[in-house]
Amino acid sequence: MGGLFGGQSVSKQRPQYTALAIQTSARGVAIPIVYGQTRITYNLLWWGDFRAKRRKQSVGKGSGGEITTYTYQVAAVLGLCEGPIGGVIKMWMDKKTDDELFGGTAYVGTCTQTPDPWLLMKHPDEALSYNCTAYVINNAWQLGEANQLPSYSFEIRGLLGGASDVNPADVIFDVLTNDRYGARFPLENITTLDAFRNYCQAVDFLVSPIFDKQRKLSEYLEEIITACNAAPRWTQGVLDIVPYGDMVISEGATYNPTAPVFDLTDDDFINSDEPVRVKRKRQADVYNAERVEYFDREFQYNTDIASVSDLFAIRTHGLRQNEVNAFHFICTADRAMLSAQLLLQRQLIMNTYEFDVGWKWIVLDPMDVGYITDTALGLNKTKVRITEIQENENGDLTITAEEMIDEISTAYVYEKQSALGQKAKAVRAIVDSVYPPVIFEPPRVLCNVAQSFHQVWCAVSGDTDKNYEGCYAWVSFDGVSYEKISSLIAPNPTGVLSEQLPSGSNPDLINMLHVTLSDASEQLYSVSENSWDDLTSLCYVDGELIAYQYAQFIEAGKYILSNLYRGCYGTANTAHAQNSQFAYLGDGEHIFKMDYMSRHIGKTIHIKLQAQTTDGVQDISTCAAYQYTLTGNPG
Question: Which DSSP string do the residues of 407-465 spell out, in sequence order?
């Protein structure tokens, strides 16, 4: 039997592994410094007690054959980051998630933490406390049939993490001045950053950065400061960060923009021939579209892109799109849009001014705001912001300043939309075009999961007359908080039996399966005898798995299926009433599959299926919620 569901009846034994294949342990790598709430990977710190468990499994239909396989487990310590952190919220194993860390124990990385009791008892000579390092340990990580650790990752609440994200001012101050993991920047050489802190709080611009690469700290900080619509400056030997924000904002904190501190006129400029030199950007050098790549927390921290553009400028001058800004410390869609919009608005600053003044203006600093007046140029109290000051050999100063346009640096918070990935379409008032799904738990032999996991399947079709293209699955255990856990699910034929189906022999060459599909545009096809023998036309019929050979077309959406293999994969060969659920499974490619742990058996899940059409994506709040109680895979 080929494809997803196995091969021909055989009896053989797979080789047994005797040790762990190490792929995720490295010496000399930087210990990540993590702030706020984000998703990180691990570095293998220690492993031992690699064990194999033998099992025999029947394959094929009828008497079939059997195959001997091995599943493995290992004890391991997975290093996360610099501690102490606020905690480990969730763990991913490939695409599976668990808020109880798949049986692991988390240590938050205090500098006084002691060795793990199990490790101390079983391997006392190797038991380390890993002071100041957060890690997760499990004496029995389940590896399935592989001899290597799966792709584990963790959602953590890192340094300074309260509810989730952290004020950028607090991040910058801590990473610069911290004596243990920071740059040990002298406290007397940095301000309290209060203006920057109040600005970020007022506009709700919070971040969750990961410092995990060996690169200049200044490069990390410049990215954060740029994304936050601000700039650093030195003033009298002290570092400060000044926002570009030009309006008073009071939302959780009050931000007051920089007040004007100078008013220069013709009498102050030294160069009488050309007191103020004006430089204007070419229109060809102005970007009219900005993009910010960020980690989307609502979509399990997958990367997404927030895009903004100036449509008028695009129509006038053509599209000039800037390179993507990789701001992975941003974890929400609204903050990414805010950053992109402010970057785009700064492109509207076209004029810069250069002028020379005497040494008495040495008190001025970059980012200071003031006015310049040049009668010859027609400048009358033109508001500018200083961007650069150069001291000349004779003590005079050459100052470069940019024009200030009212509200050009004002932060407008955009309404947040659910994260739908880079290829998803805009959320709109789309009519629900998803038909009621077929939800069931198949025999265990069809589920490619570890022993402690189970799998629930969902077959979905939609109304193509409403331009249905597919859907996204959102799942909740409480019916309130939903998590998006799938990419686009392609349409899959579902429907009901238009006539009852008695129980029959196997193969059943007498009874026929009368099917009415939910979407009349869907089609079922006959298969060859070999494909029939391989069960490639597998279908779900109210708990029984049936494979057919011939599909007779009656009219749009109606078929008669004949030559039936009944009770496939150990399901019950039984009678089915008219209107019983039907779903075509085929090779399983278009079936949504969700893994869950054994401890969830008996719990009820709530599934919303968010339609995507050619017109856009359905608002998740309008989607119907389907309930299903988990029972565990049979067999």
Answer: TTT---PPPP-----TTPPPEE-----BPPPEEE---GGG----TTEEEEEEE--B-GG
Query: Tokens for 503?
Result: 């129980």
What is the pLDDT confidence band of residue 406, given thresholds at 50, 70 and 90?
confident
Helix pair angle (168-177, 194-202), 10° resolution: 150
Torsion sign over Cα 58, 59, 63, 66: negative
Q: Which long-range contacts (CB under 8 A, 24 or more apart) does 175-181 make?
A: 175/33, 175/35, 175/211, 175/217, 175/220, 175/221, 176/217, 176/221, 176/239, 180/111, 180/132, 181/31, 181/33, 181/82, 181/132
Distance of CA 607 to the CA centre of its chain: 20
H helix intervals, 451-603? 529-533
- Longest CA–CA separation in the chain, Å: 106
Dihedral of the alpha carbons of 219, 182, 153, 91, in degrees to the nearest 10 = -130
Look up residue 437 and give its two tokens.
């799904």
The rounded distance, in Å, linking the Cα atoms of 174 and 375 is 48
Q: Please, are residues 374 and 276 in contact by the beta-carbon 8 Å criterion?
A: yes
CB 216 within 8 A of CB 209: no
Tens of pLDDT, residue by residue over 320-379, are 889 999 999 999 998 998 999 899 989 989 999 999 999 999 999 999 999 999 998 999
The model's pLDDT over 231-260, given as tens digits with 9 standing for 90+, comes to 999 988 999 999 999 888 888 899 999 899
Burial of 110 (0-12, 13-18, 19+ CB in 10 A): middle
Phi-psi region of 177 (alpha: psi -120 to 50; beta: other; left: phi over 0): alpha
Q: Are 468 and 434 in contact (CB under 8 A)?
A: yes
CA dist 400 → 201, 305, 562 (Å)? 30, 34, 83
Cβ atoms 452, 598 nearer than 8 A: yes
Strand partners, 304: 294
- Residue 254 has a CB neighbour count (10 Å cut-off) of 12
pTM, to two decimals: 0.65
pLDDT digits (tens, 9 = 90+) for 6-19: 334 444 455 555 56
- Enter the tokens of residue 207: 């971040």
SS3 for 334? helix
Pairing of strands 43-59, 65-82: antiparallel
Q: Which residues contact 378 (CB under 8 A, 6 or more apart)?
A: none
Cα 73 from Cα 51, distance rounded (Å) = 5
